[in-house]
Design goal:
The chain is of the alpha/beta class and 320 residues long. It has helices at 2-10, 15-25, 33-47, 52-59, 63-75, 98-103, 106-117, 132-143, 157-163, 191-194, 220-232, 270-278, and strands spanning 49-51, 80-82, 85-87, 125-128, 150-154, 169-173, 177-179, 184-186, 199-204, 208-210, 214-217, 233-239, 251-254, 261-265, 282-288, 298-300, 316-318. It has 12 helices and 17 strands. The strands form 4 sheets. It has a 9-stranded mixed β-sheet with strand order 6-5-4-9-12-14-15-16-17, sandwiched between helices. A 3-stranded antiparallel β-sheet has the order 1-3-2. Strands 10-11-13 form a 3-stranded antiparallel β-sheet. Strand 5 (150-154), helix 9 (157-163) and strand 6 (169-173) form a beta-alpha-beta unit. The model is unreliable at 1-5, 13-31 and 290-320 (pLDDT under 50).
Length: 320
């Protein structure tokens, strides 16, 4: 009988073991799921691909959990699931979400934004589109000295929020339908603003930029409102980092011969830069000043021929 009791006793877990099991089971599965999915989408967008095993180890969750995350992200058209992982949509993707695009090439976009903002003069009316590059321009505009009469026309909810209430800056928000993917407003309702405002400069980002096709966007709705911006502005400037060069998206909104200038980083294709300058387009390549020399900030690349760029921001210089 004693031996039978002993065997029966071994079949029951100890009280403390039962408590631990209940505690783990009670932890909600997916409390931080959305945050993890956002990070996974960013990793895939930046690296082009990711494996389930690597993601599981990185986030310290099971492979099953990662596969569920990838199902969600594929449903949102942010990744493509493959055997053992996921890949980015690449050139076939219609559009990455704004928060992901904002984090891509962050340093280059900030330098480009600083140089573009330095070319804005108090009293002007300018246009900023809903691109992430234009958002960096808006942030640098806020960082400049006091404004007295700058008007910014935009279809970007983020830019309008960024500049709203800033002393000396008037924000004109275009009307239309809200697109959550780009946090933008699109549609013909905004066209009326351009008939009432004299726009000196337009700063436009793009999904693709080539000499043959000009500036292009992945979405026709965005391209339509950008065409109105181009038509309304006296000068049109492209703000595109090197990853957009040589690519052509589905809808062209600005031909190359309409461009006044291009702000880009120092990794832009040299042959395209030369061709644009030969065509009379003012190309400004922005690169960090050599840190070893102890000079902070950025450098603005040569403009057309021997003309140096004007109105440089503090901490920037022209590269000869």
């Amino acid at each position: 009988m004693q031996s039978v009791r002993n065997r029966n006793q071994t079949k029951h877990p100890k009280p403390e073991e039962t408590a631990v099991t209940v505690k783990v089971a009670d932890v909600p599965d997916g409390v931080f799921a959305r945050e993890r999915q956002q990070q996974i989408a960013r990793i895939v967008a930046e690296d082009g691909r990711a494996r389930v095993t690597e993601l599981a180890g990185r986030f310290r969750v099971s492979a099953v959990t990662i596969r569920k995350d990838l199902v969600v992200l594929e449903g949102e058209r942010r990744v493509i699931r493959t055997h053992g992982g996921a890949i980015s949509l690449g050139d076939a993707r219609p559009e990455l979400a704004f928060d992901i695009r904002e984090g891509l090439q962050r340093e280059q976009k900030s330098r480009i934004g600083a140089a573009a903002a330095a070319c804005v003069t108090d009293g002007e009316s300018i246009v900023l589109d809903a691109s992430t590059s234009a958002l960096y321009i808006a942030r640098h505009l806020k960082g400049r000295s006091r404004w007295h009469g700058l008007t910014v026309v935009t279809n970007s909810i983020r830019i309008a929020s960024e500049l709203a209430g800033h002393p000396g800056i008037t924000v004109l928000m275009l009307g239309g339908r809200v697109r959550w993917e780009a946090l933008s407003v699109v549609g013909p309702l905004g066209d009326g603003v351009f008939r009432r405002v004299n726009v000196q400069k337009a700063f436009l980002g793009a999904a693709g930029f080539s000499i043959e096709a000009g500036l292009s966007d992945a979405m026709e709705e965005e391209a339509q409102i950008k065409r109105s911006m181009v038509a309304a502005a006296r000068e049109v400037f492209a703000v595109v980092d090197h990853t957009k060069w040589g690519r052509v998206a589905s809808a062209t909104f600005c031909r190359t011969d309409r461009l006044t200038g291009v702000f880009t980083d120092d990794e832009a294709p040299a042959d395209m830069v030369v061709a644009l300058r030969d065509a009379g387009v003012d190309v400004r390549e922005i690169r960090p000043i050599d840190a070893a020399a102890g000079r902070p900030g950025a450098a603005v690349g040569r403009a057309n021929g021997d003309r140096g760029p004007a109105n440089l921001a503090p901490g920037v210089r022209a590269v000869s």
